[in-house]
Amino acid sequence: MNDKKKIITGLAIFLFLFTLPIWYNLVSATSAPEPELSAKAKAAKTCVRSKEYMVAEHMQLLDVWRDTVVRTGERTYTNPDGKQFNMSLSTGENSCIGCHVSKADFCDKCHNYASVNPYCWDCHIDPKEKK
Amino acid sequence: MKSSRRNFLKIAGVSAVGLSAKPVLDAFATADADEHAATATPEKASNKKALTGKRWALVINTHKLQTKEALEPIIEACNKLHNVPHIENERWEIKWIWGEEFKHAFPGKEDTFLPEHVKHNPFLVLCNHCENPPCVRACPTKATFQRDDGIVLMDFHRCIGCRFCMAACPYGSRSFNFRDPRQFITEQNPDFPTRSKGVVEKCNFCAERLAVGKQPACVEASGGALIFGNVDDPASEVRKVLNKNFTIRRKQGLGTGPMVFYIV
């Protein structure tokens, strides 16, 4: 039992290395992203639906929108408050990108953090990126 | 366990209490369902100005479109609006509306003694928006479908690029994106999405313009050579034009019921 010191330091190093991911995350943890509202969105005050709904369900909403527009030709959306929107991701003043003008400062802030990469922009045009 | 009258009464009592709770549970369940219904089906409507019809058709007056130059502005209007890429290499070409020689547009109708202008002038061809579209049957994902107003439309979101529709279409109206089309579009129109590598595309009869009460772009750019309307309505202009002129359609014998008519 004269190797006690060595064993304990070894154990300590092992434990440290083993739990390194935890320490690493504690130190480098990025705070949750703050999507930046454009001046236009600020003026509009509200989104298509409540903020909670949008955060949780915006992908579903977009999915319903695209099906509805393409399949039925209906393009106007009336939210529960009676406000009307043009059911569009990227075209027109009333679309997601028409109001949240900067995709980079808004959508991408969250998406980069959550590591989601919607393929929508392969086709839909972000006016800011337009050549 | 020996069953006694006492036990039986106990169980019966508990069961009765349980049953009486059911309506309460049901109420919770429906409240929940209602909430979901409210979020899943909000109110949606079409634009009040939208053009509606039961059977859209296009008449092409080829007397007014005798040269390549006459077709150009029409083709250009469509390509610009829909971000159709211009690719030099014919293998990768994307076409929505284009010029074709008579013998290719109307095989079987060519003849030895056709007038020179018919033989050599380009004919404007595009998706025929068939009454009985073979592409719709071929599509395994229902990305291509027929709307109630007869337009054969593509849902680009669902296209998996299998190209069955291209094999099924007897008119070659469909193109496949072998390349990323964005690099071949000189001027992007932000009001219409481009397509991406790996999907098929074709003319959509300007569904997005009809939805806001406008005629298709090619019709608008044609200066009266193209007439668009509802053939189901006897009072419509297309019907009047069809009544007054002899027209032909492409490969009519196949029974697809093309909705593009040619005055020759």
Distance between the termini of chain A: 74 Å
* Largest sheet properties of chain A: 2 strands, antiparallel
Number of helices of chain A: 6
* End-to-end gap of chain B: 95 Å
Major sheet: arrangement of strands of chain A = 1-2
Strand order across the largest sheet of chain B: 9-2-11-10
The first-level CATH class name of chain B:
Alpha Beta
Largest sheet of chain B: 4 strands, mixed
* Poorly predicted runs of 5 or more residues of chain B: 32-40
Short description:
The complex is a heterodimer of chains A (131) and B (264). Helix content of chain A is 49%, strand content 5%.
Q: Which key terms come to mind for this protein?
A:
heterodimer; A: 131 residues; mainly alpha; two-stranded antiparallel ribbon; 6 helices; B: 264 residues; alpha+beta; Alpha-Beta Plaits; four-stranded mixed β-sheet
Q: How is this structure best described in words?
A:
The complex is a heterodimer of chains A (131) and B (264). Chain A is mainly alpha-helical. Chain A has a domain of 85 residues. Helices cover 49% and strands 5% of the residues of chain A. By secondary structure, chain B is of the alpha+beta class. Chain B has one domain: Alpha-Beta Plaits, CATH 3.30.70. Helices cover 33% and strands 15% of the residues of chain B. A four-stranded mixed sheet of chain B has the order 9-2-11-10. Chain B is elongated and about 105 Å long. β1 of chain A pairs antiparallel with β1 of chain B.
Give the SSE layout:
The complex is a heterodimer of chains A (131) and B (264).
Chain A: H1 4-18, H2 20-28, H3 39-44, H4 51-72, E1 76-78, E2 84-86, H5 96-99, H6 107-114
Antiparallel strand pairs in A: 1-2
Chain B: H1 5-40, E1 43-45, E2 56-61, H2 68-81, E3 97-101, H3 102-105, H4 116-120, E4 122-126, H5 134-138, E5 144-146, E6 152-154, H6 164-168, E7 175-176, E8 200-201, H7 207-210, H8 217-221, E9 226-230, H9 237-244, E10 247-248, E11 260-263
